[in-house]
Design a protein that fits this description.
By secondary structure, this protein is an alpha+beta fold. It contains one helix and three strands; from the N terminus they run E-H-E-E.
């Protein structure tokens, strides 16, 4: 039976109450984790009142 481990990271927008996301930084983070064998399985919007200020990215990899 396959077994997996999981990792969840939070990526926030830049600045206070800002909706500015550095997509190059997000790509760098995601590519680094992918190179370590992590597979992105979920993204959860942690929005408040319909505004997205941060996201949880959940990954898994086989152990």
């Amino acid at each position: 039976m396959k077994q997996f481990e999981y990792k969840t990271i939070k990526i926030d927008s830049k600045g206070s109450w800002s909706l500015n996301y550095d997509t190059n930084e997000i790509d760098t983070i995601l590519n680094k984790l992918g190179a370590e064998g992590w597979e992105l399985v979920n993204v959860q919007d942690l929005g408040v009142s319909g505004t997205s200020f941060s996201f949880h990215y959940t990954f898994k990899r086989e152990i």
